[in-house]
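Now for a concrete sample entry.
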Amino acid sequence: MGDEVHTTSLRRALLRFGALTAAALLALGAPTALAQEPEPALRTTVEFDKQHYLLHENMRIKFTITNVGTRAAEHVRLPFPLGSPMYDRWNWQPLRPTDDGITVAPGETRVLEFSGAVADRYNRQNATAGFTDRYLNFTGRKDNKEDRFGALATVTPTAGDVRGVVYGDKNRNGRQDDGEVLAGTAVTIWGAYGNRAERTTSSDGRFLFEGVEGGPWLAGYRHPDGWVVPRGDGAAYDLLVTPTGVELSVRAERPATDSVQAQLDLDRTTYRAGDPVTITATLTNSGTVPVDGVQAACLDYGSKQYIGSRVSWGDLAPTGRGVTLAAGETRKFSVTDVVPQEALGRGEVVAVCQFGPRVLEGNGNAEATAKAAVSAEPVTEEPPTPGPVPPGPSGAAQPQPQPQPQQALARTGASVLGLGLLGVLLVALGAGALAASRNREARDTGRA
Protein backbone atom coordinates (compact mmCIF):
# COMPACT_ATOMS: atom_id res chain seq x y z
CA MET A 1 0.00 0.00 0.00
CA GLY A 2 2.81 2.39 0.89
CA ASP A 3 4.53 1.68 -2.41
CA GLU A 4 1.37 2.49 -4.40
CA VAL A 5 0.93 5.79 -2.57
CA HIS A 6 4.55 6.65 -3.23
CA THR A 7 4.24 5.83 -6.95
CA THR A 8 1.07 7.89 -7.34
CA SER A 9 2.67 10.87 -5.65
CA LEU A 10 5.70 10.61 -7.92
CA ARG A 11 3.53 10.57 -11.07
CA ARG A 12 1.64 13.67 -9.91
CA ALA A 13 4.89 15.46 -9.22
CA LEU A 14 6.22 14.65 -12.68
CA LEU A 15 3.00 15.84 -14.33
CA ARG A 16 3.13 19.10 -12.38
CA PHE A 17 6.81 19.54 -13.36
CA GLY A 18 6.04 18.92 -17.05
CA ALA A 19 3.19 21.40 -17.04
CA LEU A 20 5.30 24.04 -15.34
CA THR A 21 8.16 23.45 -17.79
CA ALA A 22 5.84 23.80 -20.81
CA ALA A 23 4.36 26.99 -19.39
CA ALA A 24 7.83 28.42 -18.83
CA LEU A 25 8.93 27.61 -22.37
CA LEU A 26 5.82 29.22 -23.82
CA ALA A 27 6.39 32.28 -21.67
CA LEU A 28 9.94 32.54 -22.92
CA GLY A 29 8.78 32.25 -26.51
CA ALA A 30 10.46 28.91 -27.21
CA PRO A 31 9.28 27.32 -30.49
CA THR A 32 7.05 24.29 -30.24
CA ALA A 33 8.52 22.78 -33.45
CA LEU A 34 11.86 22.85 -35.22
CA ALA A 35 12.31 25.93 -37.41
CA GLN A 36 12.61 25.24 -41.14
CA GLU A 37 15.93 25.86 -42.85
CA PRO A 38 15.90 28.97 -45.06
CA GLU A 39 15.60 28.07 -48.74
CA PRO A 40 15.60 29.99 -52.02
CA ALA A 41 12.49 29.87 -54.19
CA LEU A 42 12.34 31.42 -57.67
CA ARG A 43 9.34 32.61 -59.63
CA THR A 44 10.03 33.42 -63.28
CA THR A 45 7.88 35.02 -65.95
CA VAL A 46 8.76 35.66 -69.60
CA GLU A 47 7.38 38.27 -72.01
CA PHE A 48 7.90 38.87 -75.74
CA ASP A 49 8.12 42.26 -77.38
CA LYS A 50 5.25 41.13 -79.66
CA GLN A 51 2.69 38.37 -79.63
CA HIS A 52 2.96 37.64 -83.35
CA TYR A 53 5.98 37.47 -85.67
CA LEU A 54 7.00 36.74 -89.23
CA LEU A 55 9.40 33.82 -89.46
CA HIS A 56 12.33 35.86 -90.77
CA GLU A 57 12.09 38.48 -87.99
CA ASN A 58 13.96 38.81 -84.69
CA MET A 59 12.24 38.67 -81.32
CA ARG A 60 13.04 39.98 -77.83
CA ILE A 61 12.34 38.03 -74.65
CA LYS A 62 12.30 39.53 -71.14
CA PHE A 63 12.91 37.30 -68.12
CA THR A 64 11.64 38.57 -64.74
CA ILE A 65 13.15 36.47 -61.95
CA THR A 66 12.02 36.94 -58.32
CA ASN A 67 13.31 35.13 -55.25
CA VAL A 68 10.35 34.63 -52.90
CA GLY A 69 12.40 32.41 -50.60
CA THR A 70 14.37 33.17 -47.45
CA ARG A 71 17.88 32.48 -48.75
CA ALA A 72 19.84 33.71 -51.77
CA ALA A 73 19.57 31.64 -54.95
CA GLU A 74 23.12 31.13 -56.23
CA HIS A 75 24.40 30.04 -59.66
CA VAL A 76 21.02 30.68 -61.28
CA ARG A 77 21.16 29.53 -64.91
CA LEU A 78 19.47 27.38 -67.51
CA PRO A 79 19.94 23.66 -66.85
CA PHE A 80 20.21 22.93 -70.58
CA PRO A 81 19.95 24.90 -73.86
CA LEU A 82 16.50 26.25 -74.73
CA GLY A 83 16.96 25.07 -78.30
CA SER A 84 19.15 22.76 -80.32
CA PRO A 85 22.67 23.34 -78.92
CA MET A 86 24.26 23.06 -82.38
CA TYR A 87 21.99 25.53 -84.13
CA ASP A 88 20.72 27.93 -81.45
CA ARG A 89 22.40 31.25 -82.26
CA TRP A 90 20.92 33.11 -79.29
CA ASN A 91 23.32 34.39 -76.65
CA TRP A 92 21.80 33.46 -73.29
CA GLN A 93 24.70 34.82 -71.25
CA PRO A 94 24.79 34.94 -68.19
CA LEU A 95 22.17 32.16 -67.98
CA ARG A 96 23.88 29.68 -70.30
CA PRO A 97 24.40 26.23 -68.77
CA THR A 98 28.16 26.78 -69.06
CA ASP A 99 28.05 30.16 -67.25
CA ASP A 100 28.55 30.66 -63.52
CA GLY A 101 25.02 32.05 -63.38
CA ILE A 102 23.63 34.93 -61.32
CA THR A 103 22.73 35.38 -57.65
CA VAL A 104 19.23 36.51 -56.64
CA ALA A 105 18.90 37.68 -53.02
CA PRO A 106 15.74 37.01 -50.96
CA GLY A 107 13.03 39.41 -52.10
CA GLU A 108 15.10 40.58 -55.08
CA THR A 109 13.83 40.76 -58.68
CA ARG A 110 16.21 40.53 -61.63
CA VAL A 111 15.17 41.45 -65.19
CA LEU A 112 17.19 40.10 -68.13
CA GLU A 113 16.51 40.58 -71.84
CA PHE A 114 17.61 38.43 -74.76
CA SER A 115 17.09 38.65 -78.51
CA GLY A 116 17.56 36.45 -81.53
CA ALA A 117 16.00 34.93 -84.60
CA VAL A 118 12.39 33.76 -84.48
CA ALA A 119 13.48 30.84 -86.67
CA ASP A 120 15.68 29.50 -83.86
CA ARG A 121 12.62 29.29 -81.57
CA TYR A 122 10.19 28.14 -84.28
CA ASN A 123 7.94 25.09 -83.93
CA ARG A 124 6.56 24.08 -87.33
CA GLN A 125 3.90 21.79 -85.86
CA ASN A 126 1.91 24.58 -84.23
CA ALA A 127 3.47 27.66 -85.92
CA THR A 128 4.67 29.16 -82.64
CA ALA A 129 7.95 30.40 -81.21
CA GLY A 130 9.00 30.27 -77.58
CA PHE A 131 9.22 27.52 -74.98
CA THR A 132 7.09 25.75 -72.39
CA ASP A 133 7.60 24.03 -69.02
CA ARG A 134 11.08 25.39 -68.41
CA TYR A 135 12.85 26.27 -65.17
CA LEU A 136 16.03 27.94 -63.92
CA ASN A 137 18.45 25.79 -62.01
CA PHE A 138 20.31 26.97 -58.90
CA THR A 139 22.28 25.50 -56.01
CA GLY A 140 20.07 23.30 -53.87
CA ARG A 141 16.98 23.52 -56.10
CA LYS A 142 14.26 20.96 -55.42
CA ASP A 143 12.01 20.04 -58.31
CA ASN A 144 8.60 21.70 -58.08
CA LYS A 145 5.86 23.08 -60.33
CA GLU A 146 5.82 26.58 -58.88
CA ASP A 147 9.11 27.72 -60.44
CA ARG A 148 8.40 26.53 -64.00
CA PHE A 149 7.62 29.01 -66.76
CA GLY A 150 6.95 29.29 -70.48
CA ALA A 151 5.51 31.50 -73.18
CA LEU A 152 4.58 31.16 -76.85
CA ALA A 153 4.00 33.64 -79.66
CA THR A 154 2.34 32.88 -82.96
CA VAL A 155 4.40 32.90 -86.17
CA THR A 156 3.54 33.36 -89.85
CA PRO A 157 5.89 31.29 -92.03
CA THR A 158 7.80 33.11 -94.78
CA ALA A 159 10.13 31.93 -97.57
CA GLY A 160 12.29 33.30 -100.38
CA ASP A 161 14.78 32.28 -103.07
CA VAL A 162 18.56 32.35 -102.69
CA ARG A 163 20.38 32.86 -105.98
CA GLY A 164 23.77 34.13 -107.11
CA VAL A 165 26.99 33.71 -109.08
CA VAL A 166 30.48 32.58 -108.01
CA TYR A 167 33.51 34.04 -109.81
CA GLY A 168 37.28 33.75 -109.42
CA ASP A 169 38.92 37.19 -109.16
CA LYS A 170 42.00 36.34 -111.25
CA ASN A 171 43.22 39.95 -111.54
CA ARG A 172 42.28 40.76 -107.90
CA ASN A 173 40.37 43.91 -108.87
CA GLY A 174 37.40 43.10 -106.61
CA ARG A 175 34.77 42.70 -109.36
CA GLN A 176 33.61 40.09 -111.84
CA ASP A 177 35.22 40.29 -115.29
CA ASP A 178 34.77 38.22 -118.43
CA GLY A 179 36.01 34.67 -118.15
CA GLU A 180 36.05 34.61 -114.32
CA VAL A 181 32.89 32.56 -113.57
CA LEU A 182 33.55 29.36 -111.62
CA ALA A 183 31.52 26.36 -112.73
CA GLY A 184 31.33 23.28 -110.50
CA THR A 185 31.49 25.13 -107.19
CA ALA A 186 29.53 23.38 -104.41
CA VAL A 187 27.32 25.87 -102.54
CA THR A 188 25.83 24.71 -99.22
CA ILE A 189 23.43 26.58 -96.92
CA TRP A 190 22.55 25.75 -93.29
CA GLY A 191 19.50 27.04 -91.41
CA ALA A 192 17.86 26.60 -88.01
CA TYR A 193 17.64 23.15 -86.43
CA GLY A 194 20.06 21.65 -88.92
CA ASN A 195 18.19 22.49 -92.12
CA ARG A 196 20.61 22.02 -95.01
CA ALA A 197 20.62 22.25 -98.80
CA GLU A 198 23.31 22.08 -101.49
CA ARG A 199 23.62 23.15 -105.14
CA THR A 200 26.45 23.14 -107.71
CA THR A 201 27.14 26.16 -109.91
CA SER A 202 26.35 25.74 -113.59
CA SER A 203 28.58 26.59 -116.54
CA ASP A 204 27.79 30.27 -116.06
CA GLY A 205 28.77 30.12 -112.38
CA ARG A 206 25.20 30.54 -111.12
CA PHE A 207 23.21 28.71 -108.44
CA LEU A 208 19.58 28.80 -107.19
CA PHE A 209 17.77 27.63 -104.02
CA GLU A 210 14.02 28.02 -104.35
CA GLY A 211 11.52 28.50 -101.52
CA VAL A 212 14.06 28.66 -98.71
CA GLU A 213 12.44 29.01 -95.27
CA GLY A 214 12.65 32.54 -93.89
CA GLY A 215 15.27 33.48 -91.31
CA PRO A 216 19.07 33.47 -90.98
CA TRP A 217 21.16 30.95 -92.93
CA LEU A 218 24.88 30.25 -93.25
CA ALA A 219 26.56 29.55 -96.58
CA GLY A 220 29.70 27.66 -97.54
CA TYR A 221 31.61 27.26 -100.81
CA ARG A 222 33.94 24.54 -102.08
CA HIS A 223 35.62 24.58 -105.48
CA PRO A 224 37.52 21.56 -106.83
CA ASP A 225 40.36 23.74 -108.18
CA GLY A 226 41.14 25.25 -104.78
CA TRP A 227 39.52 28.68 -105.15
CA VAL A 228 38.44 30.05 -101.76
CA VAL A 229 35.87 32.65 -100.72
CA PRO A 230 37.32 35.05 -98.09
CA ARG A 231 35.39 34.73 -94.84
CA GLY A 232 35.74 38.45 -94.35
CA ASP A 233 33.05 38.83 -97.02
CA GLY A 234 30.18 38.48 -94.55
CA ALA A 235 27.52 38.99 -97.20
CA ALA A 236 28.58 35.75 -98.89
CA TYR A 237 28.35 33.74 -95.68
CA ASP A 238 25.60 35.24 -93.50
CA LEU A 239 22.24 35.24 -95.27
CA LEU A 240 18.87 36.57 -94.12
CA VAL A 241 16.14 35.01 -96.23
CA THR A 242 13.02 37.17 -96.59
CA PRO A 243 10.08 37.00 -99.05
CA THR A 244 12.05 39.27 -101.43
CA GLY A 245 14.84 36.66 -101.62
CA VAL A 246 18.64 36.95 -101.61
CA GLU A 247 20.90 37.78 -104.58
CA LEU A 248 24.63 37.10 -104.16
CA SER A 249 27.80 37.91 -106.08
CA VAL A 250 30.41 35.66 -104.50
CA ARG A 251 34.06 36.59 -105.04
CA ALA A 252 36.68 33.82 -104.80
CA GLU A 253 40.45 34.14 -104.84
CA ARG A 254 43.46 31.86 -105.03
CA PRO A 255 44.60 30.46 -101.67
CA ALA A 256 47.78 31.60 -99.96
CA THR A 257 49.19 28.12 -100.39
CA ASP A 258 49.60 28.80 -104.10
CA SER A 259 52.64 30.95 -103.34
CA VAL A 260 53.28 30.96 -99.56
CA GLN A 261 55.15 28.08 -97.96
CA ALA A 262 55.72 27.85 -94.21
CA GLN A 263 58.11 25.92 -91.98
CA LEU A 264 58.28 25.81 -88.16
CA ASP A 265 61.35 24.90 -86.10
CA LEU A 266 61.99 24.62 -82.36
CA ASP A 267 65.39 25.45 -80.89
CA ARG A 268 65.81 22.08 -79.13
CA THR A 269 64.75 18.47 -79.56
CA THR A 270 63.99 17.82 -75.87
CA TYR A 271 62.61 20.05 -73.13
CA ARG A 272 61.39 19.90 -69.58
CA ALA A 273 58.10 21.43 -68.47
CA GLY A 274 58.66 25.12 -67.76
CA ASP A 275 61.60 25.49 -70.13
CA PRO A 276 61.62 28.41 -72.58
CA VAL A 277 61.21 27.35 -76.19
CA THR A 278 61.94 29.44 -79.24
CA ILE A 279 59.65 28.96 -82.25
CA THR A 280 61.00 30.06 -85.61
CA ALA A 281 58.70 30.45 -88.62
CA THR A 282 60.28 30.51 -92.07
CA LEU A 283 57.96 31.98 -94.72
CA THR A 284 58.69 31.87 -98.44
CA ASN A 285 56.83 33.49 -101.33
CA SER A 286 57.47 31.33 -104.38
CA GLY A 287 55.11 33.38 -106.53
CA THR A 288 55.76 36.16 -109.03
CA VAL A 289 53.83 38.91 -107.20
CA PRO A 290 54.11 40.19 -103.61
CA VAL A 291 51.79 38.79 -100.95
CA ASP A 292 50.62 41.49 -98.54
CA GLY A 293 49.13 41.31 -95.06
CA VAL A 294 50.44 37.86 -94.11
CA GLN A 295 49.48 36.97 -90.53
CA ALA A 296 50.03 34.01 -88.20
CA ALA A 297 47.53 32.07 -86.09
CA CYS A 298 48.74 29.21 -83.90
CA LEU A 299 46.24 26.55 -82.89
CA ASP A 300 45.83 24.76 -79.58
CA TYR A 301 42.90 22.41 -80.29
CA GLY A 302 41.79 22.92 -76.68
CA SER A 303 44.96 21.26 -75.30
CA LYS A 304 47.71 23.02 -73.36
CA GLN A 305 50.47 20.85 -74.83
CA TYR A 306 50.37 23.23 -77.83
CA ILE A 307 52.48 26.37 -77.87
CA GLY A 308 52.59 29.57 -79.91
CA SER A 309 49.00 30.72 -79.36
CA ARG A 310 49.67 32.51 -76.06
CA VAL A 311 52.52 34.76 -77.23
CA SER A 312 52.54 37.85 -79.42
CA TRP A 313 53.77 37.50 -82.97
CA GLY A 314 54.02 41.27 -83.47
CA ASP A 315 52.99 42.33 -86.98
CA LEU A 316 52.27 38.68 -87.75
CA ALA A 317 49.62 38.48 -85.01
CA PRO A 318 46.03 37.91 -86.17
CA THR A 319 45.21 41.44 -85.01
CA GLY A 320 48.43 42.90 -86.44
CA ARG A 321 48.93 44.71 -89.71
CA GLY A 322 50.58 41.70 -91.31
CA VAL A 323 53.84 41.49 -93.23
CA THR A 324 54.66 41.59 -96.92
CA LEU A 325 56.50 38.80 -98.68
CA ALA A 326 58.07 40.03 -101.91
CA ALA A 327 58.15 37.71 -104.90
CA GLY A 328 60.78 35.03 -104.27
CA GLU A 329 61.50 36.33 -100.74
CA THR A 330 62.13 34.22 -97.61
CA ARG A 331 61.76 35.72 -94.14
CA LYS A 332 62.21 34.31 -90.63
CA PHE A 333 60.25 35.26 -87.50
CA SER A 334 60.90 34.00 -83.97
CA VAL A 335 58.93 34.09 -80.72
CA THR A 336 59.58 32.58 -77.29
CA ASP A 337 57.03 30.55 -75.36
CA VAL A 338 57.19 28.25 -72.31
CA VAL A 339 56.70 24.47 -72.34
CA PRO A 340 53.39 23.89 -70.51
CA GLN A 341 53.25 21.50 -67.56
CA GLU A 342 50.51 19.57 -69.35
CA ALA A 343 52.94 18.69 -72.14
CA LEU A 344 54.78 16.41 -69.71
CA GLY A 345 51.81 14.03 -69.59
CA ARG A 346 51.76 13.81 -73.39
CA GLY A 347 55.51 13.44 -73.68
CA GLU A 348 55.79 16.12 -76.34
CA VAL A 349 55.21 19.77 -77.03
CA VAL A 350 53.64 20.82 -80.34
CA ALA A 351 53.39 24.02 -82.37
CA VAL A 352 50.83 24.18 -85.20
CA CYS A 353 50.49 27.53 -86.97
CA GLN A 354 48.76 28.83 -90.07
CA PHE A 355 50.01 31.71 -92.21
CA GLY A 356 48.27 33.81 -94.83
CA PRO A 357 46.43 37.07 -95.50
CA ARG A 358 43.44 37.54 -93.17
CA VAL A 359 44.52 34.38 -91.39
CA LEU A 360 41.48 34.16 -89.11
CA GLU A 361 39.23 33.71 -92.12
CA GLY A 362 40.69 30.23 -92.29
CA ASN A 363 40.67 29.78 -96.08
CA GLY A 364 43.71 28.53 -97.96
CA ASN A 365 46.33 29.25 -95.29
CA ALA A 366 49.76 27.66 -95.33
CA GLU A 367 50.13 25.41 -92.27
CA ALA A 368 53.26 24.13 -90.53
CA THR A 369 53.93 21.90 -87.51
CA ALA A 370 56.92 21.37 -85.20
CA LYS A 371 57.28 18.92 -82.30
CA ALA A 372 59.80 18.14 -79.57
CA ALA A 373 60.00 15.62 -76.74
CA VAL A 374 59.23 16.62 -73.15
CA SER A 375 61.23 14.67 -70.57
CA ALA A 376 60.26 13.88 -66.99
CA GLU A 377 63.85 13.22 -66.00
CA PRO A 378 65.11 15.47 -63.18
CA VAL A 379 67.99 17.85 -63.81
CA THR A 380 71.31 16.13 -63.06
CA GLU A 381 73.83 18.89 -62.60
CA GLU A 382 77.52 18.10 -62.02
CA PRO A 383 78.96 19.46 -58.74
CA PRO A 384 80.89 22.66 -59.35
CA THR A 385 84.67 22.27 -59.72
CA PRO A 386 86.54 24.09 -56.90
CA GLY A 387 88.18 27.19 -58.28
CA PRO A 388 91.19 29.11 -57.01
CA VAL A 389 90.99 30.38 -53.46
CA PRO A 390 90.07 34.04 -53.55
CA PRO A 391 92.67 36.42 -52.19
CA GLY A 392 92.23 37.93 -48.75
CA PRO A 393 92.20 41.60 -47.90
CA SER A 394 96.04 41.74 -47.91
CA GLY A 395 96.34 39.90 -51.18
CA ALA A 396 97.29 36.59 -49.53
CA ALA A 397 95.18 33.52 -50.18
CA GLN A 398 92.57 32.82 -47.53
CA PRO A 399 93.20 29.57 -45.64
CA GLN A 400 90.72 26.78 -46.22
CA PRO A 401 88.37 26.29 -43.24
CA GLN A 402 89.18 23.13 -41.29
CA PRO A 403 86.39 20.82 -40.13
CA GLN A 404 85.72 20.92 -36.41
CA PRO A 405 85.13 17.72 -34.39
CA GLN A 406 82.12 19.19 -32.63
CA GLN A 407 80.46 19.81 -36.00
CA ALA A 408 80.74 16.11 -36.81
CA LEU A 409 79.19 15.19 -33.46
CA ALA A 410 76.48 17.75 -33.99
CA ARG A 411 75.38 15.93 -37.13
CA THR A 412 74.43 12.92 -34.98
CA GLY A 413 72.02 15.06 -33.03
CA ALA A 414 74.17 15.15 -29.80
CA SER A 415 76.56 17.79 -28.46
CA VAL A 416 79.71 17.27 -26.38
CA LEU A 417 77.95 18.64 -23.28
CA GLY A 418 75.00 16.29 -23.86
CA LEU A 419 77.26 13.27 -24.18
CA GLY A 420 79.10 14.26 -20.96
CA LEU A 421 75.86 14.47 -18.97
CA LEU A 422 74.79 11.11 -20.39
CA GLY A 423 78.09 9.59 -19.18
CA VAL A 424 77.63 10.96 -15.64
CA LEU A 425 74.11 9.56 -15.53
CA LEU A 426 75.28 6.11 -16.64
CA VAL A 427 78.02 6.11 -13.96
CA ALA A 428 75.50 7.05 -11.30
CA LEU A 429 73.10 4.33 -12.40
CA GLY A 430 75.94 1.78 -12.32
CA ALA A 431 76.98 2.80 -8.82
CA GLY A 432 73.42 2.54 -7.58
CA ALA A 433 73.02 -0.90 -9.08
CA LEU A 434 76.27 -2.05 -7.42
CA ALA A 435 75.19 -0.74 -4.00
CA ALA A 436 71.83 -2.46 -4.28
CA SER A 437 73.52 -5.74 -5.17
CA ARG A 438 75.78 -5.55 -2.12
CA ASN A 439 72.83 -4.84 0.20
CA ARG A 440 71.02 -7.92 -1.07
CA GLU A 441 74.12 -10.04 -0.46
CA ALA A 442 74.44 -8.71 3.12
CA ARG A 443 70.80 -9.52 3.90
CA ASP A 444 71.18 -13.01 2.47
CA THR A 445 74.30 -13.60 4.60
CA GLY A 446 72.50 -12.46 7.79
CA ARG A 447 69.62 -14.84 7.13
CA ALA A 448 72.07 -17.64 6.61
